[in-house]
């Protein structure tokens, strides 16, 4: 088949795919920063680190200051509303007024296995490790030996880039690889409990090709149980703690220079495929998808619908944004008037797949100075949202409105004998004749640490068969009879799961309270809830001080599904001011609350 004819076939496949998917796509809306507590952050931005740093069941944001004056920001999340706690850290002292003028990479990690997330940072001059104690951060880099050296020669900056964290030696704690400009060697900071030792030499990372690539990350590419290292176009497999270049033997020798790349299972055959984008219009290569076939990679970019187009790509993030059971890809574009890209993965049957770029159809509308970003579920509704830091807009938060009735399930994992962050877990979900896998990492690529929880869309399946977790140190755990459409806390070694909904532990499932829709809203919204048994029901709205605004339901109801409407008026019929409000459902001694935003 001639290339022109092949491209025509691809275009037809994509056009048909978009038309077929329109009824199942979710839509996104831009969330007003102020309405969710994302304050003005006046600095050039370049990336994001997402984690639940305080263990309250809501995902928090670290917004990276790339360069210039001012400092990075830490936003904790409580029920979908963010609070700036940066002043509880030494970030201002580190990033302002000194020589550390460029912040390169930042990642949340529980390096000391105490149950909360600490913060690791690489700048143009140093690396930093900030220990977290109840959301108060203390610099401990010198104390624990997490320190880099200035390379030889006459240089002004010796940029450090964190490769992320992984348990490369499988001893139950997390180690960190660090690359550095003008340094032919990688750092491999082995975690020895209360101190870090540079183990790069014994791991074979001195004078290796990957050290000069400066953009390094971790992933267990071959899924053999130990984490491997990947650079911009070089891949090193880990064999008993020593790394070997396998780029040629796995079929990726022809890879061109790239910054943003990810291994994930796009075709649900339970191995990791490879996707990458070039960093700028001047880089060699283009958007490419490489399929893993028995450990050897084949370029399937054109067959999958990726046409050779270049742009200033600044990050990418895989995630099942429409919950249909197939991983989609968000690609972030920077600086010009090009829109960010959202490639929806569609199974066309008979082993054929195509990606359709649908951003203009679903509300991905912002253009301009944006950099970094990716998927995470900021409001715990099971539909993946998108966050992008921006010098122009401060923050761009796209809320995924859902609305396609697709089901999902999520897992919040915690290690006991393995590292507490359970970095290096492999989770396999079985639903009918379909299998999906997710591999957990700490740091995704150069400027991104996104969606820290394991999330699966399951389409219109009404139940799952089982979940198998291979924990980082190799133990396996099988879970069955697990409820869908909620997150589950799973602790390594425990037989039962702890179910959570909206970040709160629940007792028996007396009811389910859904997110209001639309949200934000004007002039009215609907609130859906389900009762598993009869009882006296109270549903009311209050402001953020706890003062009751209006009562929507106050009576006994039978088991079943119900919908309440609110027109934005208080008990006296007056329109309430714009802002954030809570609605709370009570039945017996059980209660649950959610936030909503009215824009009058």
Summarize the structure.
With 600 residues, this protein is mainly beta.
Structure description:
It is a single chain. The chain has 600 residues and is mainly beta. 5% of the residues lie in helices and 42% in strands. The strands form eleven sheets. It has a five-stranded mixed β-sheet, with no helix packed on it. The longest helix is centred in the N-terminal third of the chain and has 19 residues, at 3-21. It is globular. The chain starts with a helix and ends with a strand. The relative contact order is 0.12.
Descriptive key words:
about 600 residues; 5-stranded mixed β-sheet; globular; mainly beta; disordered N terminus; about 5% helix
Map the helices and strands.
Layout lengths: L2 H19 L6 E3 L13 E8 L8 E8 L5 E6 L2 E4 L6 H5 L7 E7 L8 E6 L3 E7 L2 E4 L1 H4 L15 E7 L8 E6 L6 E5 L4 E3 L18 E3 L8 E3 L4 E5 L2 E4 L14 E5 L8 E5 L10 E6 L2 E4 L13 E7 L8 E6 L7 E9 L2 E6 L1 H4 L11 E3 L8 E6 L3 E7 L6 E8 L11 E6 L2 E6 L8 E2 L4 E6 L6 E5 L5 E4 L7 E5 L6 E4 L2 E2 L5 E3 L11 E7 L3 E8 L5 E10 L2 E7 L12 E9 L2 E9 L2
Parallel strand pairs: 2-32, 29-36
Antiparallel strand pairs: 1-28, 2-3, 3-4, 4-5, 6-7, 7-8, 8-9, 10-11, 11-12, 12-13, 14-15, 15-16, 16-17, 18-19, 19-20, 20-21, 22-23, 23-24, 24-25, 26-27, 27-28, 29-33, 30-31, 30-34, 34-35, 36-37, 37-38, 39-40, 40-43, 41-42, 41-44, 44-45
Strand order of the largest sheet: 5-4-3-2-32
* Strand segment count: 45
- Helix content range: under 10%
- The overall pLDDT, averaged over residues, is 86
Strand content: 35-45%
**Main sheet attributes: strand count, strand direction, barrel closure:** 5 strands, mixed
Low-confidence stretches: 1-23, 496-509
Structural class: mainly beta
Total helical segments? 4
Q: End-to-end span in angstroms?
A: 58 Å
Tell me the radius of gyration.
24 Å
Shape from CA axes?
globular
């Amino acid at each position: 088949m001639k290339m022109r004819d092949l491209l025509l076939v691809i275009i037809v496949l994509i056009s048909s795919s978009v038309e077929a998917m329109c009824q199942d796509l979710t839509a996104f809306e831009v969330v007003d920063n102020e309405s969710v507590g994302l304050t003005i952050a006046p600095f050039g931005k370049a990336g994001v680190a997402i984690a639940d740093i305080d263990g309250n069941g809501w995902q928090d944001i670290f917004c990276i200051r790339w360069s210039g004056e001012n400092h990075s920001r830490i936003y904790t999340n409580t029920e979908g509303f963010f609070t700036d706690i940066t002043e509880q850290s030494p970030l201002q002292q580190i990033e302002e007024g000194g020589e550390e003028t460029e912040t390169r990479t930042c990642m949340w990690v529980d390096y000391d296995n105490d149950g909360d997330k600490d913060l690791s940072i690489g700048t143009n001059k140093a690396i930093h490790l900030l220990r977290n104690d109840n959301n108060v951060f203390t610099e401990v880099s010198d104390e624990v030996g997490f320190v880099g050296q200035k390379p030889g020669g006459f240089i002004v900056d010796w940029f450090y880039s964190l490769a992320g964290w992984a348990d490369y030696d499988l001893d139950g704690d997390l180690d960190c690889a660090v690359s550095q400009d003008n340094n032919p060697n990688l750092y491999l900071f082995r975690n020895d409990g209360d101190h870090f030792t540079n183990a790069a030499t014994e791991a074979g990372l001195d004078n290796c090709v990957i050290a000069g690539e400066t953009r390094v990350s971790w992933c267990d590419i071959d899924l053999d149980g130990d984490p491997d290292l990947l650079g911009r176009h070089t891949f090193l497999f880990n064999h008993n703690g020593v790394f070997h270049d396998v780029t040629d033997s796995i079929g990726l020798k022809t890879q061109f220079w790239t910054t943003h790349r990810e291994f994930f299972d796009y075709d649900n055959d339970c191995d990791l495929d490879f996707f990458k984008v070039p960093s700028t219009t001047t880089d060699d290569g283009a958007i490419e998808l490489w399929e893993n076939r028995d450990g050897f990679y084949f370029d399937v970019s054109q067959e999958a619908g990726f046409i050779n187009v270049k742009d200033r790509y600044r990050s990418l993030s895989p995630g099942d944004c429409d919950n249909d059971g197939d991983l989609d890809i968000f690609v972030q574009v920077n600086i010009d008037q090009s829109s960010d890209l959202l490639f929806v993965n569609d199974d066309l049957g008979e082993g054929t797949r195509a990606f359709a770029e649908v951003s203009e159809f679903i509300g991905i509308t912002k253009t301009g100075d944006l950099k970094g970003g990716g998927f995470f579920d900021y409001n715990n509704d099971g539909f993946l949202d998108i966050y992008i830091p921006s010098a122009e807009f401060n923050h761009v938060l796209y809320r995924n409105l859902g609305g396609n009735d697709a089901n999902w399930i999520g897992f919040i994992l915690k290690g006991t004998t393995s590292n507490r962050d359970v970095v290096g877990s492999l989770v396999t979900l079985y639903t009918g004749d379909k299998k999906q896998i997710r591999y957990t990492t700490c740091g995704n690529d150069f400027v991104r640490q996104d969606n820290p929880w394991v999330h699966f869309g399951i389409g219109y399946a009404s139940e799952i068969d089982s979940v198998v977790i291979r924990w980082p140190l190799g133990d396996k755990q099988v879970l069955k009879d697990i409820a869908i459409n909620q997150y589950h806390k799973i602790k390594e070694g425990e037989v039962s799961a702890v179910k959570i909904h909206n970040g709160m532990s629940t007792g028996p499932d007396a009811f389910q309270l859904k997110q209001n829709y639309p949200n934000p809203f004007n002039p009215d919204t609907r609130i859906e809830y389900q009762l598993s048994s009869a009882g006296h029901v109270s549903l009311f709205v209050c402001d953020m001080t706890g003062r009751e605004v209006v009562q929507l339901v106050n009576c006994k109801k039978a088991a079943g599904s119900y919908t309440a409407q609110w027109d934005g008026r208080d008990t006296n019929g007056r329109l309430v001011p714009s802002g954030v409000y809570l609605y709370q459902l009570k039945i017996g001694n059980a209660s649950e609350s959610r936030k909503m935003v009215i824009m009058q």
